[in-house]
Amino acid sequence: MGERIGFIGIGRMGWPMAANLLARGFDVAVADRDTARVARFAAELGGRAAADAAEAARGAQAVITMLPTSREVAEVARAIRPVLTRGALLIDMTSGQPGATRAIAAELAQAGIEMVDCPVSGGVARARTAELAIMAGGDPAVLDRAEPILRAMGSSIHRCGPIGAGQAMKALNNLVSAGGFLIGIEALLIGQRFGLDPEVMVDVLNASTGMNNSTQKKFKQFVLSRSFDSGFSLALMAKDLSIALEVGREAGVATPFAALCRELWAAAAASLDPEEDHTAMAKLCERLAGVVLGKGGAEG
């Protein structure tokens, strides 16, 4: 394809996403605060190693940001704005705050730069295989421009509404995921104390109406195995739940369960380690229950 793309943020998710763009023939320049990681990416996969965000964006038709929060996106937007030409496109794939994203988009529009928000779901595994689910927000004509780029990284693109809508949907998706994880872990703890085998319980849940993403893809793989290494941190989950609550407050919707869910995840991040894997949330639940999940689970 040859279209020039600046990719800012090659962390656990950004690395395979940028790699897939290269594999599809895009001309990619990568930048990250970890300059050694940037050099390693270019050496192993190709593309161009940029010293900073502005260098990655110079001459690009599109810039992708895959960063921890909207604060970093705002910093990058300010840095790249002077080097982007009118008509350039910023694709923010960060799980950010819709209100902050709308403010960034409004500032960029003054310079003739367009913006869409396209957060993703699927984790590192689906980032590697370019099978991410992408939740897109923005003007339909601008999303048409972005779609060929997005299809190099995801297998499904869901247009959710105007700018910020993709990020609102991503936060609400993670709210549902986080709630399902919590109630599932509590069920396993109850069952184990009763005398049920947690692995058998997961099998039954997956054959029954209690099935959800956590029962299918997290409980055996990361909790019962005690590996706790799905690739998504407690801090990021707590951040996304805070965004979901913010969306609810702005809409004037009472969210008692969502508020409790967010507080529990924030407590896990504070009492464990914010950078620990989000599946380690099970450890907090185990402490509260006095049970460690697994065969012959110890009493706390």
Question: What is the chain-wise order of helices and strands?
Answer: EHEHEHEHEHEEHEHEHHHHHHH
| Sequence stretches where pLDDT stays below 50 over 5 or more residues | none
CATH 2nd-level architecture of the largest domain: 3-Layer(aba) Sandwich
Q: How far is the first residue's CA from the last residue's CA?
A: 58 Å
What best-fitting shape do the alpha-carbon axes yield? globular
CATH class of the largest domain: Alpha Beta
Tell me the number of structural domains. Answer: 2
Averaged pLDDT, please?
A: 95
Under CATH, the topology of the largest domain can be stated as Rossmann fold
Describe the structure.
This protein is of the alpha/beta class and 300 residues long. The protein has 2 domains: 160 residues, Rossmann fold (3-Layer(aba) Sandwich); 122 residues, Orthogonal Bundle (N-(1-d-carboxylethyl)-l-norvaline Dehydrogenase, domain 2), CATH 1.10.1040. It is 53% helix and 13% strand. The chain is built from 14 helices and 9 strands. The strands form 2 sheets. It has a 6-stranded parallel beta sheet, with helices on both faces. A 3-stranded mixed beta sheet has the order 7-8-9. Helix 7 links the parallel strand 8 and strand 9. Helix 8 crosses helix 12, helix 8 runs parallel beside helix 14 and helix 12 runs antiparallel to helix 13. The longest helix has 30 residues. The radius of gyration is 20 Å and the shape is globular. The chain starts with a strand and ends in an 11-residue tail after the last helix. The model has no long low-confidence stretch (mean pLDDT 95).
